[in-house]
Design a protein that fits this description.
heterotrimer; A mainly alpha (272); B mainly alpha (271); C alpha/beta (264); A: 272 residues; mainly alpha; MetI-like fold; 10 helices; 76% helix; C: 264 residues; alpha/beta; Rossmann fold; 6-stranded mixed sheet; 4-stranded antiparallel sheet; 10 strands
C-alpha cells in the first residue's frame, strides 16, 4: 500500500492487515504445505477407536485411583524404589556438579585457551545430544542392572546441562571486576577464586538446584530400562493394571518435585 | 563480627567462629550423606560386572561397528511417526496450554482464589511426570501405538508451555492493556488487542523450543511401545542386533542435531 | 457536559489521592490540569473513565452517572471518552492502522475485530484521521518503528476515531522534546476546536498550558487550589499550587505515587 498521494483517494480505500509473510507465493506455499503435512500426519496415525473407547473405562478407573491411592499393599517396593531414586539423585548431582565446574571453566572462551575450550565444548555437545534413557540402556548393557548405571547416566547428563549454562554465564560476566583482580597480580587460581567465582556463584547454585530437580524426575524413568530407581516399580504397577499403586507412586513423585521446587525457590531467593 | 580484637591486635577472619563451625558441620553432614548414598549404590551393584566393563564395552563396540546401513530402508516409517508424534503432540499441547496459562497468570485469571490454584496444579502435575511415564500410562489405557505417543507428548508439554507462557503474560506492559480498555473494548477484545500481540513472540519461541525437546523425547517413546523409532531400537536391543542399534542411534543423533538447528533458525527469524 | 461531585479516591495504602473534588466542564471547553507530581492528576483522569475505581463521589457524563454503571454499560460510555497517554500506550506489535482501528473496538463485535474486518466507514475515518495528522503513508508500519511524536499522533487518532465527546489527556508531552510537545499540544487543541470536543489535559509544563487552553485547574495534594483563566496564574497562585519552599514534600509524594502505580 503506497498512499501518500493526497487525501481524496483515501476515502473508500480498502484496508487489510498486512500479512505476516510478505511474498504471496511463499505464504500460500507455507499454508498449503503445513495443511498437507497435517492431513498426511493424521492419516498415518491409525487410531483403533474401539480400543480407545474400551480404554476410557480404564482411564476412568485410573483417574478415580488418584482419589484413593494405595500406598500400603506395595509399600516396601515403593519405599525401596523411592530411596534408590533419591540416592541416585544425590550422588549423581554431587558428582555431576563437581565435574561440570572445571568443564564449564574450560568451555568459557574468556577463561580457557582454545584447545581446552574445544575439548570441553565437545564433551558438552556429546552429553547434550545423547538422551538420558539411551545412555542408560548402553550403560546397563555395560555395567549390568542396578543403580550404578543410573548414577553414571545422570552424572553424565548433569555435566552437559550444567557446564553449558555455567560456561555461558562465565562468558557474560562483568569483565571489569575480573580485570581488577588480575591487575592486583593474582595467580590464575586466585583470579578464578576472587574474580570469577563470586560473580557466577548465585547462578551456579540456582542451576544446581534446578538440575537436582531434573535428576530426580529423570531417575523416576531410568528404572524402565533397568537402571535403578522407582521406575521399575511403576512399570510393574502399570503392567499389572494396579492403578491405585501407580497413582500412589505418581503422587509421591509430584509431591517430591513440588517440595524440591519450593526448596530451590527459597535457596535461590537467599543467594541472589 | 569478622574482626576480632585480641589484646590490641585486630584479627580479620572471613567468618566468625560460630559461623565457621556451622560451615564445617554442614560439610560433614553433606559428606556423610554422600557416603551413605554411595554405599547404598555399592551394595546394589554386582562389582564383578563392573570390573568386567572394559571388556564388555570392547565387545559391544566390535559387534556394533560397522552399522548395518541397509537397515535404514526400514526406518522411513518410524522416523515419519517420530516426527508426527513430536509435531502433533506440540500442537495439541499448545492449544491446551494457552487457556491454562491465561487462567494461571495473576493478571488474567478470573479467580485468584479458586481457578488459579487449579491451573497451577495442572501445570505442576503434567510437568513433573516424564513423557515416558505418561506413555506407559496411556498405553495401559488406550493401547500401544503412535496415538498414545502423541497424547503422552501433548500432556507432558502442557505444563512446560503453560508455565513459560503465564510468566510471559505476567510480564506484559499494562499501559497498553489500559489503553485498549479505555476505548470501551470488551474483555475478550482487550485480550485479543492488548495482551495477545504482546505475548506472541514469547509464544512462538516457546512453541519451537518445546518442539525441539519433543523431537528428542519422541525418539525414545517407542521403548515402552508408544510408536516411533524407539520401537525399532527396543526390538533390535531385544535380539541383540547391535549393528542395527548403532545405526538407529546415529539416526536419533542426526534427528536431534537437525531439530536443534531448525529451532535455532526459526527462533532467530521470529525474534 | 462533565460533572464531578465530591470525587474521592483513597488507595489501599491509605494515601488519599483525591479529596472531594467538584468540577464542571461545559461542552467544548479545553481545560488544563496542573499541579506537582503526585497531586492526583492522573488519578483524577482515570477516575472519570473508571480505569481507577473512585472510592466515593459521582461522575456525570451528560445525563449519565458513570459511577454506578455495570461493566457493560460502562464500556458503552467509555466510547464517548477518548484517552491519550503519556507513554503513548500504543500496542507496539500491531500496525499503525490496527492501533487506530482499536479505537473502534467498543463499536464492533469480537469476531469482526478479531478478524480485522472493520466496516469500510471506520477504515475511511481512520485514513482521514491519519491524513489529518500527517501519517497516512505510515498506515502499515508497526507502531514500534515510529518516533515519539509520530506515536503520540497515532494515539490521538485512536482517541478521536472513538467519536468521543470528551478527551482525557494524560501528560501528552512528558516524553517528547519541546518542539514536538508544542506541535502535539497545538494539534490536540485544534482538533478539539474542529470537533467541538471538551478535553481535560494533564500537564506539568505551565507555560505550555497557558499557551493553548481556556481554563486552568490547579491541583495540590488531591484538592483544587486554583480554577480560572490561564492569565490569572500569578506567581503567588503558582506558589500555592507547587509550594515553593516545600520541595521535599513534593519529592516524597512522587515516590508514593510511583509505588501505588507499581502495585496495581
Amino acid at each position: 500500500m503506497s498512499a501518500a498521494d493526497g487525501s481524496a483517494p483515501l476515502i473508500g480505500k480498502r484496508w487489510k492487515k498486512p500479512p505476516f509473510v510478505q511474498r504471496t507465493w511463499l505464504r500460500w506455499l507455507l499454508i498449503l504445505g503445513f495443511g498437507a503435512y497435517l492431513v498426511a500426519a493424521f492419516m498415518t496415525i491409525d487410531v483403533n477407536w474401539s480400543r480407545v473407547y474400551e480404554g476410557l473405562e480404564r482411564g476412568k478407573q485410573f483417574v478415580l485411583a488418584f482419589t484413593n491411592p494405595d500406598f500400603t499393599s506395595r509399600s516396601s517396593d515403593i519405599w525401596e524404589g523411592m530411596v534408590e531414586s533419591i540416592v541416585m539423585t544425590i550422588t549423581s548431582s554431587v558428582v555431576g556438579i563437581a565435574i561440570s565446574i572445571p568443564i564449564a571453566l574450560g568451555a568459557a572462551r574468556n577463561v580457557a585457551p582454545l584447545p581446552i575450550y574445544l575439548i570441553c565444548r565437545g564433551i558438552i555437545a556429546i552429553s547434550r545430544a545423547l538422551q538420558e534413557i539411551i545412555v542408560a540402556i548402553l550403560l546397563v548393557a555395560i555395567f549390568g542392572f542396578g543403580p550404578l548405571a543410573g548414577f553414571f547416566t545422570l552424572s553424565f547428563a548433569t555435566i552437559g546441562f550444567l557446564s553449558k549454562l555455567l560456561a555461558e554465564d562465565i562468558e557474560s560476566m562483568d569483565k571489569v571486576q575480573a580485570e581488577a583482580i588480575k591487575a592486583s597480580g593474582a595467580k590464575w587460581t586466585q583470579w578464578i577464586n576472587y574474580g570469577v567465582q563470586p560473580q557466577v556463584m548465585p547462578r551456579l547454585i540456582g542451576l544446581s538446584m534446578y538440575r537436582i530437580d531434573i535428576n530426580f524426575r529423570e531417575s523416576a524413568i531410568l528404572g524402565l530400562v533397568g537402571a535403578g530407581g522407582i521406575g521399575a516399580t511403576l512399570n510393574t504397577a502399570f503392567d499389572r493394571y494396579e492403578y491405585d499403586t501407580a497413582a500412589a507412586i505418581l503422587i509421591t513423585i509430584i509431591v517430591i518435585v513440588m517440595a524440591l521446587e519450593y526448596l530451590s525457590g527459597i535457596i535461590r531467593a537467599r543467594v541472589q | 563480627m569478622p574482626v576480632r580484637d585480641t589484646g590490641g591486635l585486630k584479627l580479620w577472619q572471613r567468618r566468625t567462629q560460630r559461623e565457621s563451625l556451622m560451615h564445617w558441620v554442614l560439610w560433614l553432614i553433606g559428606i556423610a550423606i554422600f557416603a551413605y548414598c554411595w554405599q547404598q549404590i555399592s551394595e546394589a551393584t554386582t562389582w564383578f560386572f563392573v570390573w568386567d566393563a572394559p571388556r564388555i564395552t570392547q565387545d559391544i563396540w566390535t559387534r556394533a561397528t560397522p552399522p548395518k546401513w541397509e537397515y535404514i530402508t526400514q526406518l522411513g516409517k518410524p522416523i515419519w511417526d517420530t516426527l508426527n508424534i513430536a509435531t502433533l503432540g506440540t500442537i495439541i499441547s499448545l492449544i491446551l496450554a494457552v487457556p491454562v496459562a491465561f487462567l494461571a497468570a495473576r493478571n488474567t485469571t478470573p479467580s485468584a482464589l479458586f481457578i488459579r490454584p487449579i491451573a497451577l496444579l495442572i501445570i505442576v502435575s503434567t510437568r513433573s511426570i516424564n513423557s515416558l511415564i505418561w506413555a506407559l500410562l496411556l498405553i495401559a489405557i488406550i493401547g500401544p501405538g503412535v496415538f498414545a505417543g502423541v497424547v503422552a507428548i501433548a500432556i507432558r508439554s502442557i505444563g512446560f508451555c503453560a508455565k513459560l507462557l503465564y510468566e510471559a503474560i505476567e510480564e506484559i506492559d499494562t499501559t497498553q492493556v489500559e489503553a485498549i480498555t479505555a476505548t470501551g473494548a470488551s474483555r475478550w477484545q482487550v485480550m485479543a488487542y492488548g495482551i495477545v500481540p504482546q505475548i506472541m513472540p514469547a509464544f512462538a519461541g516457546i512453541a519451537v523450543f518445546r518442539w525441539d525437546i519433543n523431537i528428542r523425547e519422541s525418539t525414545v517413546l517407542g521403548l515402552v511401545g508408544a510408536g516411533g523409532i524407539g520401537l525399532q531400537l527396543s526390538s533390535s536391543l531385544n535380539v541383540l542386533a547391535w549393528p542395527q542399534v548403532s545405526l538407529i542411534l546415529l539416526v536419533i543423533l542426526a534427528a536431534v542435531v537437525i531439530s536443534e538447528w531448525v529451532s535455532a533458525k526459526v527462533r532467530a527469524a521470529i525474534i | 457536559m462533565l460533572r464531578l461531585e465530591k470525587l474521592v479516591k483513597t488507595y489501599k495504602t491509605g494515601d488519599q489521592a483525591l479529596k472531594a473534588v467538584d468540577l464542571e466542564i461545559p461542552e467544548g471547553q479545553v481545560l488544563a490540569l496542573i499541579g506537582p507530581s503526585g497531586a492526583g492528576k492522573s488519578t483524577l483522569i482515570r477516575c472519570i473513565n473508571r480505569l481507577v475505581e473512585p472510592t466515593s463521589g459521582k461522575v456525570y457524563l451528560g445525563q449519565t452517572e458513570l459511577t454506578g454503571l455495570s461493566s457493560g454499560a460502562l464500556r458503552k460510555e467509555r466510547r464517548r471518552m477518548g484517552m491519550i497517554f503519556q507513554e503513548y500506550a500504543l500496542v507496539e506489535r500491531l500496525t499503525v492502522m490496527e492501533n487506530v482501528l482499536s479505537g473502534r473496538l467498543g463499536y464492533v463485535g469480537f469476531w469482526r475485530s478479531f478478524l480485522r474486518k472493520y466496516p469500510q466507514s471506520d477504515i475511511d475515518e481512520a485514513f482521514r484521521l491519519l491524513d489529518r495528522v500527517g501519517l497516512a503513508h505510515m498506515a502499515d508500519k508497526r507502531a514500534d518503528e515510529l518516533s515519539g511524536g509520530q506515536r503520540q499522533r497515532v494515539g490521538i487518532c485512536r482517541a478521536l476515531i472513538q467519536d468521543p465527546a470528551l478527551l482525557l489527556v494524560d501528560e501528552p508531552t512528558a516524553s517528547l522534546d519541546p518542539k514536538t510537545s508544542r506541535q502535539i499540544m497545538r494539534l490536540i487543541c485544534e482538533l478539539c476546536r474542529e470537533r467541538g470536543l471538551a478535553a481535560i489535559i494533564n500537564i506539568h509544563d505551565v507555560a505550555l498550558a497557558q499557551m493553548f487552553v481556556q481554563r486552568v485547574i490547579g491541583l495540590r495534594f488531591g484538592a483544587m487550589v486554583y480554577d480560572g483563566p490561564p492569565d490569572g496564574l500569578t506567581p503567588e497562585q503558582l506558589t500555592e499550587i507547587y509550594g515553593e519552599e516545600d520541595w521535599e514534600a513534593t519529592i516524597e509524594a512522587v515516590d508514593e505515587d510511583d509505588d501505588i502505580e507499581a502495585a496495581e
